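Supplementary material to the annual report.
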Amino acid sequence: MTTSSTPSRTSSAQGPAQARSPKSRFRWRVIDIVTAAVLGVATGLIFIVWNSVGYAWFTVMDAFTPGVGGIAVGIWLLGGVLGGLIIRKPGAALFVEVLAASVSMLLGSQWSIETVYSGIAQGLGAELIFLLFFYKRFGLGVAMLAGAGAAVAAWTLELFLSANIEKGPEFLTIYLVSIVLSGAVLAGVVGWLLTRALAATGALNRFAAGRSSKRIG
Amino acid sequence: MSGGIAPAGAQSARSVAVDSDGVPLEVLPVGGRFLDRVNPVTPFLAAVLYSIPLLTTLDIVSALAALVLAMVAFWVAGVRPVEILRSSWILLIAAPVSATSMLLYAKPGGESYGQFLYANITDNSIQLAIAVGVRVLAIGVPTLVALSRIDPTRLADGLAQVAHLPARFVVSALAGIRLFAVFRDDWTAMSQARRARGLGDSGAVRRLMTMAFALLALAIRRAGTLATVMEARGFGAEDVARTWARPSRLGWRDLVLVLAAVGIAGVAVAAAVALSSYRLVGSA
Amino acid sequence: MAADPRARGDRCTEPLRRGQKLEANRLALVGARVEARGWGWRHADRAKLAVAGLDLTIEPGEAVLLLGPSGAGKSTLLAALAGVLGDHEDDGQELGSLLVDGRHPSDARGTVGLVLQDPQANTVLARIGDDVAFGCENLGVPRAETWARVREALDAVGLRMPLDRSTAQLSGGERQRLAIAGVLAMRPDLILLDEPTANLDPAGVDEVREAVVRAAQASGATLIVIEHRVDVWRSSVDRVVVLGGEQHLLADGTPDLVLEQHRESLLAAGVWIGGHEPQVPRAVLAPGEDLLIADGLGFGRADHALHTQFSATLHAGESTVVLGPNGAGKTTLALTLAGLLTPVEGEVRATQALRDAGDDARVRRGGWGLGRFRAAPPAGPHPSAWRSRQLLTRIGTVFQQPEHQFVAGTVRRELEVGPDAAGRGKRETSERVDELLTALRLSHLAEAHPFTLSGGEQRRLSVATVLATAPRVLIFDEPTFGQDRRTWTELVAIMARLVAEGHALVSVTHDEQLVRVLGDQCIRIGAHDRKDAKVPA
Ligand SMILES: Nc1ncnc2c1ncn2[C@@H]1O[C@H](COP(=O)(O)OP(=O)(O)OP(=O)(O)O)[C@@H](O)[C@H]1O
Ligand SMILES: Nc1ncnc2c1ncn2[C@@H]1O[C@H](COP(=O)(O)OP(=O)(O)OP(=O)(O)O)[C@@H](O)[C@H]1O
Ligand SMILES: [Mg+2]
Ligand SMILES: [Mg+2]
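Predicted assembly:
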């Protein structure tokens, strides 16, 4: 903050608006950080529920089908999509997903430290998609792509974490298809719908994601 | 002190024991266990340093060696078997699941014992399945035990002061985690409100979904006011060097923990190499 | 702690600021100067400005009481002064200029301490000590000094609990004290308090006011307090500023001057002035039939009883007030009477009259299954075992925290929820809703989201949700806090009318005026002993 800008502000007393230095679209306001943090914690809660419900499906499918278990994975990718869609800042997808994974780990997820590795990879996967669109587009298509991006990243990481690389091409292909579908739908579409529903409640009215044209009162 | 706000005459009504830095002992960690006294950042570092070497290989020797050594280390550190079981029982399910998947779908190699659709049980897949199952335990059990019972406040102190992660993000995450308790109360109050307002009788599933969504919306609103309050207390100013009320330091215990983690993983991998059972993931 | 030369006096944070010149006046004991020129603010989703065309100068060290009707924009102004309205186009629109010590408030952050209107919102961290220390940490106060300030601040507001006590389960009043302590510990140049005593018991009001005034005088800080009740602050402030309903300054001057010269217009604008207690006519009736009986009741959270052997009877046409210090368990009692918490021991019993009061015939069972077509079983004697819709038509509850009450997306919808669930007709519902919106002055906000209302508006809406179905027993937890004189009078008149119509009304309150008008029966809850509530000596 330069002190020299102060006089100009004082003199603009009756002007329509004060000349505040324009802030970058990419600057994280405190409300962005705190909301991202709360989203991360809330998504972490969802993960914890899913760590039992979704994991049951995943277990059964993973053990007895070649890779169809991937269908359950999407929910674990929700953090990145929600973070990106709501906060719309570089790094939001990554931060929310990693925080959600960490919360889930600290409250006892079966994957322990690997939860955080997954969170980082999945967050990066979604982040990359938002970056590709220069953090300018946040429609349904981008949301689905972000979910799919997170899924591809998860798939890649699991090549090593779960040693999936030792598995046959049929398994890997089916797993890739099911995880990408799941990411696009359970993370992408669900994340987009949630964002829209949240915007409709007015909870996002201090975010670009929730700005409505409607004026009340 | 001039400008104090204590009532005139009645100086501090509380006489609290403080340490040499003036920090009240009340807010400092207590707990006699070795793992309670390390900096909470250390178990993370240890878990990373421990897990990565083990993740490079798929063999039973390294996994078994690491598991056994880690158990010995916990025994030395005074962690009781019950505690180990309590924090890691879930792995007793996860391990066989991973093993089964590998057993059925690993790339075939050697003699085949049965085939069904894409599933093929071969010498290779049996070997890999056992290795994967044990590896899940070897990586999971020690890290779960080390990372359980971490206090979020101390963790945040460590992440900011020791790991030097950006303070704004760390503190916000901590404030977000406090909302956990608030969410629980909100949930209770919301169920009470719904009951009082005649919405409590609808189907359980639908009520659960609408309440979960309402909680998410409320959480985001809470985030908005929380951000306001935090800013009102000077949070987020970029031109002030933030201080930390609670110290977060490293001590000899932290060094011991890291050395133990690296040592165990190192010995385990070395043993595998020596017995030429080391098998780089993806090398087959 | 005095060893650190930077920790000197009240403004030890300054030297830690990088790249900032030390101005002469910032070292003296001088508070912040506030200057507004044609200032206005429009919230992100609102058409109307919350504040417009404000011209106001407040000199360093002044203590100002900010008055004005509910919805006048008082909270908005305070948030702006604290620099927390946001400075981004997504946050809202700013007009004119508002300066704190010559700087835009968002650059002066940290020298300004704000306590928000909603006590729950003011808590940041999980433990009491950490929460109070939070502001000091952000200002770069050295560690030892921080803890010294934390203890002083907690003592000053009379919150005597261990520093590592969780902030999760404080009563409304305890929380408000904590919030004020958090701001005092920052030793700000400008202290902004938004209805700081609204949830406090009378002893707490004096204690907290004294603490605030002492802190402001000691540090020379400028003080701005919002409070509807003039008498509480009258002798402690230098100046009274009244924001008018129609966007202008209604009055400005010393308390005596303003209260003398503008008495009539202030009363019309809803300001509380001593000696002009609002009169609400009450029809004098003998108490009617018994409705709800507490018998040997033990109430508390979970299985831990705060109080035992509590007995009382609620009669039709009688108004009961529940009084007691902060944290005594009034809210807990109210929720137990309302059938929302299960008694720890003893019972809350509904008489036959109350059990017959609801119109269960029109109540459908919920859910999707076939079961929903069956009639609900008749209401039993214990409200805590009733179905939700049986409760709805018999006992209504207003929660202490308005946000817990809200279940819908707009003010109008919020009011329709109850009548809809009770199976009232469309016409009947919409007439009743319109009537309530007008009576409680919420019509212009019918489409707004409940959470975006001002504090007083939220309170009125939460009360209105219960009035919409008007059950036989009404349980209100602090129904009048944060109300200006005018809306207070209207609200209490509605409450009095309900009593006259034969409803049983219970109000948990610290409001002496409410007790005066509606205190037919007084229940006093004493402080309970709680082992960990005292600091070990
Ligand atoms: N976050 C928000 N978003 C949209 N509108 C808001 C918001 N906060 C306040 N308003 C509106 O701005 C107007 C002024 O509100 P404000 O809270 O400043 O009133 P107030 O004078 O403090 O009233 P009270 O005495 O009831 O607390 C009200 O009409 C309110 O509905
Ligand atoms: N959700 C909760 N769970 C457990 N204990 C609680 C909870 N809410 C409050 N308490 C504790 O129970 C006691 C009584 O709280 P209650 O809210 O009933 O007080 P109150 O008389 O309504 O006070 P106030 O006037 O400040 O609102 C307090 O000591 C409080 O700390
Ligand atoms: Mg207000
Ligand atoms: Mg209460």
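The CA atoms of residues 122 and 154 of chain A lie 6 Å apart.
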